[in-house]
Amino acid sequence: MVLLLGQMAVAMVTAAVWQTPTIDEPVYVGTAAVFLEEHSLRYNPEHPPLGKLVVAAGVAVADPHLDPGFRGSQSELGRHLLYESGNDPWRLMLWARLPVIALTLLFGLVVFAFARQLAGDAGALVALALYCLSPDVIAHGSLATLDVPAAGFVLTAVWLLWRARLRPRLHLPLVGAALGAALATKMSTLPVVPVVLALAAVSVRYASTGVAGRRLLRALAGCVVVGLIAVAVVWATYLAVDPRLRWAPQQQVPVVRGLRGLAVELMPFPEPYRDGMRIQFALENHPWEGFLFGRLYSGSLWYYLPAALLVKTPLGALSLWAAGTVVVVAVRRLRPAASYLLAAPAVLLAAAMYGSRDFGTRYALFLPMFLAMAAGCLVAVRRRWVPVVAAVLVAFVAAGSLRAYPYYLPYANEAFGGPAKTRLRLHDSNVDWGQDLGRLADRLRERYRGERIWLVYKGSGVPSYYGIRATDPLRLPPGRVHGVLAVSDSAAAKATGRLAELIDSSRPVDDVGHSITLYRR
């Protein structure tokens, strides 16, 4: 266990040290700094505060300078804090990422403990290995973002529900706290609330004795306890930022009508949370573009996430996930755990597939967590060959994960050509999220010193800060663009018009981190 968590820690810290800010991180880091300095909720209301309070723990150590009263947009806030206020973005980003790394490792302990209760020590080690070696979990666990914390809090709530089958009075309040933490981190966890409440009722009924009516009342009381504590935790996170709960949003809050508007009004949460939901609904109505297997499209595809997971998940893990799921459902002594292991990720996956933003497998990070534990249950099957097969598949996962080091964000499994080919299948946070601007600067100094550089960069970093002196090639006719052309792979995936013409008439000569391609013109 220590070895697995240790290698995961090394992988995440290495990624955190070398990667420049991804697209979302400056917004969260800037908002965290505003939390600390001004106790204001005005930035980034579309996400609740808890995940950013986690990031704020690291930001507080870095102690950056923040100009008082800054009134730009949330994107401008992040850029201003990192690059225009005299702060060191390398140091600030590392400290902002470290609390999320620590939380990711703690969630690994939850995976181990849950799987151990279901399948013993061997099953727990299989589950922990799949979790610690997951390229997606490593990639996003090393960033100052909200996806891993939100998924991990849901995982923790379900684990505590399982433990509540034996001691409901002790564990149900903790379930409520974990559920509240998930809701206070990302609003996309709201669909899991009915699942958690239903499982709370199941756990209480399992632990109760006596007549049916009394058991039913206890089950309902358990649901109420979980729900009330979850709501209290959400309120507490907002009050932790601003005890007076002053609300003056920096951006315009859209009006949401119909059933969605009614649902938002009925939520027992603070007004900033409900306004955040209104913003999220407006974002869902935006005509986003997606990219899948070389096809650029508008809107969303219902099968995008399953297809992306097929590309981004190690083949050994896919095999173990499938086998473990079958075992959990088919083996009688494991069947009670099926609803705990499978219901929450199934509901969250269905909700994510229904969404309009086909931006990456980060929207389904709960799957590597929950299905790792299902895979661990495979070794509970009493057949001599089962542990051997499981060990071979875990070794296959380990080999692929270690080969990906330190480029975990653009990982793709061997069936789809590995990390070097991910850009041909997927885009955005699946491959290029702006993380390699620093590496690009190093590569240009090492191999292309003195040459004319043209850059099309998709990200939140500032190229000039890292010493990149480049010109925008889209401002000139393609015939006048000569030298080295560097293009972010997410920009290349969505290339049309002049950029597409530039790429088609250039010769690829190099790549940086499997996320930026260099062309010779």
SSE diagram, text form:
Layout: H1 2-18, H2 25-38, H3 50-62, H4 74-83, H5 89-133, H6 135-141, H7 147-163, H8 168-183, H9 193-207, H10 212-241, H11 258-266, H12 271-284, E1 289-292, E2 295-298, H13 304-312, H14 315-330, H15 338-354, H16 366-376, H17 385-404, H18 422-425, H19 437-447, E3 453-456, E4 484-488, H20 489-493, H21 497-504, E5 507-512, E6 516-520
Parallel strand pairs: 3-4
Antiparallel strand pairs: 1-2, 4-6, 5-6
Helix pairs in contact: 1-5, 2-3, 2-4, 3-5, 5-6, 5-7, 5-16, 5-17, 7-8, 7-9, 8-9, 8-10, 9-10, 11-12, 14-16, 14-17, 15-16
Give a description of the structure.
Helix content is 59%, strand content 5%. It contains 21 helices and 6 strands. It has helices at 2-18, 25-38, 50-62, 74-83, 89-133, 135-141, 147-163, 168-183, 193-207, 212-241, 258-266, 271-284, 304-312, 315-330, 338-354, 366-376, 385-404, 422-425, 437-447, 489-493, 497-504; strands at residues 289-292, 295-298, 453-456, 484-488, 507-512, 516-520. The strands form 2 sheets. A 4-stranded mixed sheet has the order 3-4-6-5. It has a two-stranded antiparallel ribbon with strand order 1-2. A hairpin with a 3-residue loop joins β5 and β6. α5 packs antiparallel against α6 (135-141) and α5 packs antiparallel against α17 (385-404).
